[in-house]
Write a structure and sequence with these properties.
mainly alpha, about 80% helix
């Protein structure tokens, strides 16, 4: 029995290594595809702040930022393949019905992630970055001028784009958890107060500013997504038999 368990663990580790290698190869291919186009991505990332001037203060500063953009772009291109590899690795632990749920949701994962990126780029980034670049130095006074480095700017913008894409997955995660009976619509409804607090905490963490306006720009869609998740959690239970409480099941037995 111990030998069989050992072989099973080694088999899982070998499978994990194989899928990691495939994922790294996919990312490397994505980086290669992005390399000649990264110069256009730089222009795309600067558009939320018209007239911005970026600088680099060391010899390899611009090269490092260029490679970082290529890396993020490569990950974005390889994202569907990476998600597929993750699902295939965890699929042996899922039932046949749970696997069908996961496979059917894969397109939704990509769509919601891209929706979060689009929301962040067009709604969140322009007011937040313009406030930091134009309004806030004047508010502080002292003739302080912004001197943003390209590395810091790229790091902040890509981080915001990524995490808003992740946040937009909330409804789909709630739908799946309700479908496999980990959570219930009633539980989701009872936790709305905690969701309200967490939305503003995430808004404070995700946004690069400390003003409540920009934090609300993040918190408001999170609350909308939570409400949408509640609706999807109820939809997930359509056609399913109501869960029997453990105490009632014990009495029946």
């Amino acid at each position: 029995m111990a030998d069989e368990k050992k072989l099973s663990v080694l088999g899982h580790l070998q499978e994990l290594r194989g899928r990691l290698v495939k994922s790294l190869i996919a990312v490397a291919i994505g980086v290669g595809v992005c390399f000649p186009f990264a110069r256009y991505i730089f222009d795309f990332l600067q558009r939320p702040v018209p007239g911005i001037d970026l600088y680099y203060t060391n010899v390899t500063g611009l090269l490092g930022s260029y490679m970082r953009v290529c890396l993020y772009g490569g990950i974005a291109i390889a994202m569907p393949f990476l998600v597929f590899q993750f699902v295939m690795f965890v699929s042996p632990a899922l039932t046949r019905r749970e696997k069908s749920y996961v496979y059917s949701m894969l397109p939704g994962v990509v769509v919601l992630f891209l929706s979060g990126i689009v929301f962040c780029y067009f709604v969140l980034l322009p007011p937040a970055l313009r406030f930091l670049y134009y309004q806030f130095p004047g508010f502080v006074g002292g003739d302080i001028l912004p001197w943003w480095t390209v590395g810091d700017y790229v790091s902040v913008v890509t981080r915001l784009l990524f995490w808003m894409g992740v946040v937009f997955e909330i409804p789909l995660v709630m739908f799946f958890l309700s479908k496999i009976r980990v959570i219930s619509p009633e539980w989701v409804a009872k936790k709305w107060k905690y969701a309200f607090v967490m939305a503003f905490i995430l808004g404070a963490i995700i946004t690069p500013t400390f003003d409540p306006v920009n934090q609300s720009l993040v918190a408001a869609p999170i609350l909308v997504l939570y409400a949408l998740g509640y609706v999807l959690a109820r939809i997930a239970r359509i056609g399913q038999a109501p869960a029997v409480p453990a105490r009632a099941q014990a009495k029946a037995d």
